[in-house]
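Example for tutorial group B:
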């Protein structure tokens, strides 16, 4: 994947960062002050690298982080230690869904479902989301982005049959982002809580529309046009939350592919590797699973003010996720058909499948079949059925 998508020499920086993150893990398995949210973000960095509890070097860090999150979850699906605006809920839901998608651990499935349900319940009538998942007329693009990432992760992890209203919520979310779209002279963007043609959250809006299957919409295409004017300039960072904005922009460019990605990749990747603050193995204090000392590396945003404050752990996690974009082993990144979802799917011609419990009857092994079912007049879906 690194070779295919233009990664060159990035793995050294990623490993140094993952080691830095592990070195800063607390004894209870958590990270940071807002423990559930920061722990979830750290886990995303490991999961994106393909690390699970079975991994040699980072397995214990992943397992203890997951145990912390599951232990912090309350009966209603929310989490003890949430931040004031409760970014915690969608961020932790995102991480739990990805963890379940990679491991298929039953306990994680239960926790992930419980975490996603409050997101669906808290959706605004417009399709957007607001702080603390309290339905209102305020559509916050930053908060919405985490909600959409969680919803997409839940769907791609195979939880759509276990969470009522998931598909409908995702479809409705498209309208929520479109509400914050603005355009000027053919260049579009997504604002914070209203329309803007050049806000830093444009990458978040584009990425979420891509994740929701609306990559061909006018708003998504216009947002990509707006992003074409952006640069990854560490020395003269875009005003506002530079690393936070670039986290989304890098993913949006990658999802678009083609020249948009190639041009961006030439900017962001060498810059991030160059700007990593590396501590050599003789001074790092980090010893790997083989007992060998290793370098560690981190980043600190060049911006005067980040969305999350001055937080090297957060900056390092987001930069790591950027450098993992080439191969992110997360269900979220599984491609889905780019189809606008304007109406609920379902009519009198729906296919009904009866599943009969055969009790003690002997199992019948049937050959693998392919069937093609029409969804409407022009679209169809190939289904491969393993009939046992």
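The residue assignment follows.
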């Amino acid at each position: 994947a690194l070779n295919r998508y233009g990664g060159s020499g990035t793995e050294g920086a990623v490993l140094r960062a993952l080691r830095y993150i592990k070195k800063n893990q607390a004894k209870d398995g958590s990270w940071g002050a807002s423990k559930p949210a920061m722990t979830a973000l750290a886990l995303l960095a490991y999961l994106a690298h393909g690390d699970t509890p079975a991994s040699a070097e980072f397995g214990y860090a992943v397992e203890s982080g997951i145990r912390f999150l599951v232990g912090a979850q309350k009966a209603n699906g929310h989490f003890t230690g949430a931040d004031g605006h409760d970014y915690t809920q969608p961020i932790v839901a995102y991480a739990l869904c990805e963890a379940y998608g990679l491991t298929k651990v039953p306990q994680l499935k239960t926790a992930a479902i419980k975490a996603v349900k409050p997101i669906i319940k808290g959706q605004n009538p417009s399709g957007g989301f607001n702080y603390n998942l309290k339905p209102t007329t305020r559509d916050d693009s930053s908060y919405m982005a985490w909600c959409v990432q969680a919803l997409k992760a839940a769907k791609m992890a195979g939880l759509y049959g276990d969470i009522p209203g998931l598909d409908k919520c995702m479809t409705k979310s498209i309208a929520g982002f479109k509400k914050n779209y603005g355009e000027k002279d053919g260049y579009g963007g997504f604002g914070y809580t209203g329309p803007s043609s050049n806000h830093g959250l444009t990458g978040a809006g584009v990425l979420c529309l891509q994740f929701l299957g609306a990559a061909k919409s006018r708003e998504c295409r216009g947002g990509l046009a707006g992003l074409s004017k952006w640069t990854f300039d560490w020395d003269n960072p875009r005003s506002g939350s530079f690393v936070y904005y670039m986290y989304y922009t890098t993913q949006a460019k990658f999802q678009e592919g083609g020249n948009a990605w190639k041009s961006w990749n030439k900017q962001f990747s060498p810059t991030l590797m160059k700007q990593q603050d590396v501590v050599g193995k003789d001074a790092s204090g980090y010893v790997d699973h083989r007992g060998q000392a290793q370098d560690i590396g981190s980043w600190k945003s060049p911006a005067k003010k980040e969305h999350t404050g001055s937080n090297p752990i957060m900056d390092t996690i987001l930069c790591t996720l950027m450098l993992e974009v080439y191969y992110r082993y997360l269900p979220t990144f599984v491609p889905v058909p780019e189809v606008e979802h304007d109406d609920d799917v379902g009519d009198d011609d729906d296919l009904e499948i009866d599943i009969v419990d055969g009790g003690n009857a002997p199992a019948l092994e049937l050959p693998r079949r392919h069937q093609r079912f029409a969804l409407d007049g022009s679209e169809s879906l190939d289904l491969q059925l393993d009939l046992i």
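DSSP finds 14 helices and six strands in the chain. Compare this with the pattern of hydrophobic and polar residues in the output above.
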